[in-house]
Design goal:
heterodimer; A: mainly alpha; MetI-like fold; 2 domains; 81% helix; globular; B: alpha+beta; OB fold (Dihydrolipoamide Acetyltransferase, E2P); 9 helices; elongated
């Protein structure tokens, strides 16, 4: 590296200080505040707030929703990526675009769309009501909304990865006599597992934190249809700051956990580096 | 297993990859499909394997119509250009794969699989590599694993798609000699796709040359080399000098060749091909023969033959000539010398495909 001139050193120092300041002000400080506020009234009140039936039920619902939405996304994501990267068909570009719709549409709009379809005054609402199915203002609606907003995560992670890997190994397996099921379990899945896990973690993180779409569909029934993000907002609006920040601290912890796992995945599996290498080789 | 290919056509959108190809391959033969990239040779190979479905035509394997048979049921071994080894499996598991995915009724017992894999790893001289992963092996080793994997299921046909093209020159030469030895040992019907004419002529019993989706010529390596059927084949087989001229009289190959002269009025424009070693170089004009005066521009004596680049008046490009070291010593040639060239063989064609115009020397 060449020796830096004093003005270059100055520019470098200024930029580093600026970056640290902005990160501190907009990221670290608010993060610390969440925990500071949660513990403002002391440990005991924090634990009591977390143990309150409302927060516990919100936590449970959040986890249930994630537990349903993430596996569904994994299945849809694999199916979509497989179709897009391994076959040529009419409307393929349209499908690729459709997968991105949830990223482009505001989650509130997504929620409203489901109200329009499944609500009491919607297209399917009266029939569903007559058969005693409850989707809107109930758990199925929350799951639906979460599946919608997290839909692109797995597919978007897998498509470029599978494109870079190519289908040579699968073709080799087929010629060797493997049936489609064996090809998937023995060749495709082991090759994409890290990228798949990575996409699933992003989807899980988003499904735990989703607010907008869920808010429209939930009906805010305490203890029954509130997830953690909704609980945070409701407690906050009621000036119950300890409860609000206690719930918020759980969400923040989930986020930090996600980031850590994601980071570990990146360094141990080298998925992104690997995909790059494949591209270079091809 | 014999293979009959009957009137195969395949289009990708507007691009015609295969235009009515028919070909018969005898059991136990090693044939090379040779052609430039984009000529359809890989598409043809993949159609035989069942990895592509032709738009029309038939593929008959061992007398059995197989055009639409699933690739998994064709009893074919396929070796890919970029090896396509299963990267998450050890070398041993790679070779064992085809044996493990057999339907339960036909599957070998565990011990028998182990024995077969060990036998194959011995065949490809990689016995001690069983526990390693593909990324720990060199390109040449990987391709040997790929071959062992393809042979494990005792295929009736072995298809190789440019198997050595990703390897460096030395390894490539070793592997193709080795491939020929394996073929002589196992006698499995083999089709080798390649764009390397040297590889095809050296290894194959029979060479099939494809160009732009059409079969250009087929024959033994000797026939292909000595009697190229078209300017394309002549050109594709390697270094060649091209002369444009007008035919003064009918030439037969047996006749002593004469170089057509541009000044002579004659209606039929022709092209003549002369390979670099098919020239006699002399220091002075040769009486009774039609010799071309030329100036030696470059001399390269590094190699089994001496390569001369000569400037001929009116020619757009230098003429390339190869002579022996002994002849070079006799002539005591130096760059800048004036010499006379007499072609000992010249092959004349009437037409020249457009993509070859401007390829060689113009006289």
């Amino acid at each position: 590296m060449t020796r830096q001139t004093p003005s270059e050193r100055l520019a470098r120092a200024t930029l580093i200080v600026l970056a640290c300041l902005l990160t501190g002000l907009f990221l670290i400080l608010p993060l610390v505040t969440v925990f500071a506020q949660a513990f403002a009234q002391g440990w005991k009140l924090y634990l009591a707030a977390i143990h309150s039936p409302d927060v516990l039920s919100a936590l449970k619902l959040t986890l249930v929703v994630a537990a349903v939405a993430v596996p569904l996304n994994v299945v849809f994501g694999i199916a979509a990526s497989w179709a897009i990267t391994r076959f040529d068909f009419h409307g393929k570009q349209l499908l690729v675009t459709l997968i991105d719709i949830p990223l482009a549409v505001s989650p509130v709009v997504a929620g409203l769309m489901y109200v329009e379809v499944f609500g009491l005054h919607g297209w399917l609402g009266p029939w569903l009501d007559a058969h005693n199915f409850h989707i809107i203002f109930a758990v199925p609606g929350i799951v639906l909304a979460t599946v919608f907003v997290t839909f692109p995560f797995v597919a978007r992670e897998l498509i470029p990865f599978m494109q870079a890997q190519g289908s040579d190994e699968e073709e080799a397996a087929v010629v060797l006599g493997a049936n489609p099921f064996s090809v998937f379990w023995r060749v495709t899945l082991p090759n994409i597992k890290w990228a798949l896990l990575y996409g699933a973690i992003l989807a899980a993180s988003r499904s735990i934190g989703e607010f907008g779409a869920v808010s429209v569909l939930s009906g805010h029934i305490r203890g029954r249809t509130t997830t953690l993000p909704l609980e945070v907002e409701m407690a906050y609006n009621e000036y119950n700051f300890t409860a609000a920040f206690a719930a918020a601290s759980l969400l923040t912890l989930a986020a930090i956990l996600t980031l850590t796992v994601k980071k570990i995945l990146e360094s141990t599996s080298g998925i992104h580096a690997h995909a790059e290498r494949e591209k270079d080789a091809a | 297993m014999s293979i009959q290919i009957e009137n195969i056509r395949k289009n990708y959108g507007a691009f015609e990859a295969l235009k009515d190809i028919s070909l018969t391959i005898e059991s136990g033969e090693l044939i090379a499909l040779l052609g430039p990239s984009g000529c359809g040779k890989t598409t043809l190979l993949r159609s035989i394997a069942g990895l592509e479905t032709p738009d029309s035509g038939r593929i008959v394997l061992n007398g059995e119509e197989s055009t639409r048979t699933n690739a998994a049921r064709r009893g074919i071994g396929f070796v890919f250009q970029h090896y396509a080894l299963f990267r998450h499996m050890t070398i041993f598991e790679n070779v064992a794969f085809g044996l493990r995915v057999q339907p339960r009724a036909e599957r070998l017992a565990r011990a028998a699989i182990h024995e077969r894999v060990s036998e194959l790893l011995r065949l490809v001289q990689l016995e001690s590599y069983g526990r390693m992963y593909p990324e720990q092996l060199s390109g040449g080793q990987r391709q040997r694993v790929a071959l062992a994997r393809a042979l494990a299921v005792r295929p009736k046909v072995l298809l190789l798609d440019e198997p050595f093209s990703a390897l460096d020159a030395k390894v490539r030469k070793d592997l193709r000699t080795w491939l020929r030895r394996i073929h002589d040992e196992l006698h499995v019907t083999t089709i080798l796709v390649t764009h390397d004419q040297e590889e095809a002529l050296e290894v194959a019993d029979r060479v099939v040359i494809l160009n732009a989706g059409k079969l250009e010529q087929e024959g033994t390596p000797e026939q292909i080399y000595n009697q190229p059927a078209s300017p394309f084949v002549y050109n594709f087989l390697g270094n060649v000098n091209l002369f444009h001229g007008r035919l003064l009289a009918d030439l037969t190959p047996a006749e002593s060749p004469r170089v057509p002269s541009p000044s002579a009025p004659s209606p039929s424009a022709v092209v003549g091909f002369v390979r670099p070693h098919e020239f006699e170089v002399s220091a002075g004009p040769v009486s009774g023969r039609n010799a071309l005066p030329a100036t030696l521009a470059k001399l390269n004596a590094a190699g089994p033959l001496v390569r001369l680049e000569l400037i001929v008046a009116d020619a757009a490009r230098p003429v390339i000539v190869e002579i022996s070291h002994a002849r070079l010593r006799e002539l005591e040639l130096q760059e800048g010398n004036k010499v006379y060239l007499t072609p000992t063989e010249i092959r004349v064609f009437n037409d020249l495909p457009e993509d070859m115009v401007d390829f060689g020397s113009h006289i």
